[in-house]
Structures are given as structure tokens and as C-alpha cells.
Design a protein that fits this description.
Elements: E1 3-6, E2 17-21, H1 42-54, H2 66-72, E3 74-75, E4 78-79, E5 104-108, E6 127-131, H3 132-138, E7 146-149, E8 163-167, E9 175-178, H4 184-197, E10 212-213, E11 218-219, H5 221-233, H6 238-251, H7 256-259, H8 263-268, H9 284-287, E12 300-304, E13 307-308, E14 315-322, E15 336-341, E16 370-394, E17 404-405, E18 408-411, E19 414-419, E20 429-431, E21 436-439, E22 444-459, E23 468-470, E24 474-476, E25 479-491, E26 498-533, E27 538-542, E28 545-550, E29 553-555
Helix pairs in contact: 4-5
Length: 563
Amino acid sequence: MKKHLFLAFCVLCFVSVRANVIEGVAAIPEGYYDGVSGKKSPDAILDALQICISRDYNEISYKGLEPHYLNTDFYADSLWDMYSTCHFVYEDANKAQKQVCDGWNKEHVCCQSWLGSGPMVSDLFNVYPTDARVNNLRSNYPYGVVGSNKGISGDPDHHALGKLGTSAVSGYSGTCYEPDDRYKGDFARTFFYMVARYRDKILNSGGGATMFSSNPTNLKPYSLAFLLEWHRNDPVSQKEIDRNQAVYGEQNNRNPFIDYPDLVEYIWGTKKNQQVDLSTMTPTCEGGGQDPAGKVKYGVTWSVNGVILSMDSIVENKKTQALPETPESCSSNSNVFVGWTDAPIDGIAGEAPAILYREPADFPPVTADVTYYAVFAHAETIDHGKVESTESVNMKAQGFSNGQAVSSIQKGDVTITFGKGTAGSNVPKYYNTGEAVRCYPGNSMTVTAESITKIVLTFGSGDSNNAISVSTGALSGSTWTGDADQVVFSVGGSSGHRRIAQVDVTMNGSGAQTVYSDYLTTCSTTAIGQTEVAPAATKILRNGQIYILVGEQMYNLTGQKIK
């Protein structure tokens, strides 16, 4: 059932509740990024950013970091860990690390062994509190894209996040750590920050040489490719916005790639060598972020007549009901049960009711008892023989974002699933170029439907024309023919890819049809409506923002879950 959050006010004046951007909360200090606008070359932009984020920096000792995490990474007294789903409290710091969830400690995203001395060793934008076991296993391996996953040992309850295994990206063939999808953007922006903040330092000692070049520090092609992809696919979250502001409060600097994510494109991406104008960009702290899991828009609060509210309580209203069960003994004349309706049907040869609830999800939530009537009908099956039909599945029409990994598509009676395969080094992804899903060597596309007789593939522009094999039937050019309920297309070759823009599936399915008539209601039942009100919540002020704690669950002021 849906859950709704509402605010309770005892006021006698006209109240209008609307969402507004928080003014002055988590705002970037005036003039903080002066000197960046007008810069054009990547080096000039990075040089300007380094000045901004190094000015008046408050260095914290490495041994003294832990207490600062209470302000940057703990929410409602629980650590937000990007390496696990464990529930850690502050007192779990530096405990044993034999198994996942034993305790947490400090993790350098850019490993300590890659760094020299100085502030980079204890920079809160690089040193995160994480599960100690995952941290230990990650060791000083670089980040990357895992091909062969070795798994996280010592994790009997499967709380670990990320993968550890052999790199699948050209340029490095050793072991790497790949973070969970919901946090890839967070870590990518950490690496971008390290380049800007410490571009005059050496970050490529040991394993760092895999990811960084030097003089000045920058990213190597191996790491830049997947970091850009992570940055684009996992936009800045409210968690990052909050942490960015909290770290500013601790060490007096900010991550510019959280404040202005588009700066990444001006330095390494699609806008390289274009002139920067920050006045044309909206900082994330003013426009909101996205929830790491659900990508929900944040950055708003409640106001009454334009005045930001100071709230002391919030309650959660749950609407639940006991759904009626399918009756077992109130049918007659071998009729079949077809659903529930909210009014009896007169006579024994009635028409189908206007409202008919068949599945639990169909029932509306109720807060009072409601009577429903069981509907039965005479059923007759008419066989029209085999009926030919064609379903067209256009990849552009599915609404995929550029670079999005694609696993399955359902349209009508057709299901299309994409697989990486044992030999594939990349997962199938949709790209705007060619408006198609790219299937790489080793990838597969499986088409499932009843009695498939023909499949026509349409390829997008730039297609590499790799050989395609099929599991059954015959493939001639782009047209498959045969008689099957499932066909697997496998892409061959050692490089390149096929760009699948559209799949047209012709089926010769059954024409059998069940026709219902003589609807009647013979018995009734009652849905029990309930309203439950959660305890009043606690208002929490953290880093200049108000959050609401209901039990162990934290919400922002829009009602979105934070924890």
C-alpha cells in the first residue's frame, strides 16, 4: 500500500503548502569559485579550481578523523556505508574485520600507498568510513570494471556491496574493485576532486600508476573512460550534497564536481575546450539531488505563505485493508469466479459489472469497512485456430538513457532479454548514436514468444556487421525464419558490436478465446479498513538542514526517505 506523509498544523489562517527551493541552506559561499568562469582549456580550469578548493583549507590529522564522521557520514546515529548494507554505530569503529559487518574503519579511495605526505592523506573527500572487511579485501587495488568476480569472502549474510575481481577494461588486466552502481558516481567525483585538489602532487605511486598520470596529475585513459560513465549514469545525490556541505564545515573546502557536475564535461568530456561560465549553471545544492537508490528529486521544503516552517512533528498515515479471499463454495451451475465488485448484480443473466477487481493490487485502499460481492460467469472457449500477428520492438521508443545497460524488454506477448555471455567484455547498452542497443562479442539477445515464425532485425548506423549465430532456425541477412518459442542470437567476433535498433517478431499463436456471459453475484465478504498512525517524530537539525526521524527511518521535508 502507498504510504503518505502529512504535516499537522493547528492554524486559523489561510495555509498554502507548496515546494520551494531552500534559500541559503547548503549554499556555496559567495565568491568561492571566483576565477573559474572564463577559463577554457582543461589545465586552466583545473588550475583555477585548485586555487579555490585549497584556499584556507583546514587540515585534519589522520588519527583525528573519526569524530568528524559524526557530522559527515552518520545519519540518525547510523553510518551511511558505501561498501556494505551493514548497520554501524560510531562505537563499531576499528573493530575486528574477520567478517563483513564486524566493524568500520577509514578507507582511502585513492589508496594511502599511492599518496605522499600532507593533507591528501586525511582529506575527508578521499577518506570515507566503510566496512572494515571490504576495505581490507579491496587493499590497494585500483577501482575499475570487474570481468571475473572473485566475490567478497567473509560475507555469510550478503551485506557487502561491490565486486572484487579481474579487470575487464583494456589498459589494466590485474585485480580491481568495482563499487555498487548506486555509488559509482560518488566515487568518480572523488577521483575528479583528487585531480583538481592535488594536481601538483604525485598520486601515481604503486597501484596509483594504473589510474593516474603525473606532472601535472591527471587521469589515464584506462580510468577516465569508466569514471566518466559512472559520473554520467549516477548523478549527484542528496547524500553527496549533504556530505559536501558537512565536509565544508569540517575542513573548509568543497568538491566542485558535486556543486557543478557539468565541470567534468568541460575538463574531460563533451565540452572540452569550451569556455566555462558558472553563471549559466545551477548548483546542485540549489536544484536538489537524486536519491542513490530511487533517483528521487530532492532539495525542497515546505512553506506556509512563503515562510519556511519550523516543524516539531510529523506522522505517517498508513491505509491498509484485509483483502477478500476467493470464495470456495458459493458458485453455482459450474460457473467460474471472475472477480469482486462493490454492488450486487440483479438476476442470473446479468452483464459484466462496471467495476471488477481481479487482483489484490486492483483494490483501492480503504479506511472503513467495505462490502464486496463475488462475481461468477459462464465461460466458453472458442478456438479461432492459429492467428498470425507481428510485434515491433523499437529500442529508441523504450526511453533508455544514453549509455544505459539493458537487460530485458517486454512488449505485448514478446520478451527480449540481453545477456553479457561468458566471453563478453561489456554488457549490452543503449546509445543515442545509432539509436540502438549495442551487443558486443559474446553478448546474446533472446527473443521469447509463442510460435515465432519470423524475426526481422533492424541495425542502427555505425553497425560493425559482426557475425550472428542463432540457437535454432535459419538466419539469412537480418531475417530469421523457423518455428520456435524462443530464439537466441549470439554475437561473434573479437571486437566491434551489433547495433540492434528494432526487432520485428511475427508469431503464429493460438487463436483460442474465452468468452464470459451470464454474470451473477452469489455471496459477499467485507474488506476491513484500518488506519494506523505512527508515533510523532523528532525534528533533527543537521548541517543547516532539517530532517524528520520517524522511528528509525529518516525523511527530508518532502517526505522522501533518506536512510
